[in-house]
């Protein structure tokens, strides 16, 4: 089961201004002006900006959050986060991302592979050593995939709750959807709600 992300919440009605960055493990480099700033575990971005570029080492973990959505990242990854109306996250590398989308939609670009449209649910993305990515929907609304420019597959496709899909770079004809990769590690959730609550003990 995917870990539940801890989100920072603002007053209802306040639009998100910029994602908050928290370094959870290892070292994360942040492009600040024309130079890279190295942040260690426990550090936060000195100044949040609508557009942020990050580089995560192989052993680094970080979290980006706004009110209503969160992305937990594990390296190695290069990440460009842009909040200009819709929150967009561009991923390049072989790391992973877990996304908790509640009330702020998130668009994810997997470089040269696909665009992901996330509306409300829990999703994940993992780089494949042989190339490409695996993407999945743990619960909630389906993950919608859009082909990148120049791809041979031209129609959007969906990944339903509990399902996953392997995406290969755009020189290949189609996404790969095999039974072995579709089978989730745990039964798909039939429903979900926030906030999550522990079951109550009987009488």
Give a verbal description of the structure.
- The protein has 203 residues and is an all-beta fold.
- It is 2% helix and 46% strand.
- The protein is built from one helix and 16 strands.
- A hairpin with a 2-residue loop joins β2 and β3.
Assess the beta-strand content as a share of residues: over 45%
Rg (C-alpha, Å): 17 Å
Helix count, per DSSP?
1
**Which stretches are poorly predicted, pLDDT < 50 over at least 5 residues?**
1-13, 172-186, 192-199
Described by the principal axes of the CA atoms, the overall outline is: globular
In what order do the strands lie side by side in the largest sheet?
3-2-4-7-8-10-11-14-15
Helix content: under 10%
Order of helices and strands: EEEEEEEEEEEEEEEEH
What is the residue-averaged pLDDT? 78
Count of DSSP strands: 16
Q: Which secondary-structure class do the elements indicate?
A: mainly beta
Distance between the termini: 28 Å
Q: Largest sheet at a glance?
A: 9 strands, mixed
In short:
This protein is mainly beta and 203 residues long.
Give the SSE map.
Elements: E1 20-25, E2 28-32, E3 35-39, E4 51-56, E5 61-66, E6 69-74, E7 77-84, E8 86-93, E9 96-101, E10 106-110, E11 114-118, E12 121-127, E13 133-140, E14 143-146, E15 157-159, E16 163-167, H1 179-182
Parallel strand pairs: 8-10
Antiparallel strand pairs: 1-5, 2-3, 2-4, 4-7, 5-6, 6-9, 7-8, 9-12, 10-11, 11-14, 12-13, 13-16, 14-15
């Amino acid at each position: 089961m995917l870990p539940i992300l801890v989100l920072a919440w603002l007053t209802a009605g306040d639009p998100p201004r910029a994602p908050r960055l928290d370094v959870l493990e290892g070292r994360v480099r942040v492009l600040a002006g024309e130079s890279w700033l190295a942040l260690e575990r426990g550090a936060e971005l000195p100044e949040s900006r609508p557009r942020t570029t990050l580089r995560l080492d192989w052993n680094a973990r970080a979290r980006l959050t706004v009110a209503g959505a969160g992305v937990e990242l594990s390296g190695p990854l290069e990440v460009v986060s842009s909040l200009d109306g819709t929150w967009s996250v561009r991923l390049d590398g072989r790391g992973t991302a877990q996304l908790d989308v509640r009330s702020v939609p998130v668009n994810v670009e997997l470089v040269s592979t696909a665009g992901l449209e996330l509306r409300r649910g829990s999703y994940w993305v993992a780089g494949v050593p042989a190339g490409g990515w695996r993407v999945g929907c743990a619960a909630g609304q389906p993950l919608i995939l859009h082909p990148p420019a120049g791809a041979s597959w031209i129609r959007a496709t969906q990944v339903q709750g509990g399902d996953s899909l392997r995406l290969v770079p755009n020189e290949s004809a189609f996404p790969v959807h095999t039974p072995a990769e579709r089978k989730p590690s745990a039964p798909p959730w039939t429903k979900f709600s926030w906030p999550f609550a522990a079951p109550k003990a009987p009488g």
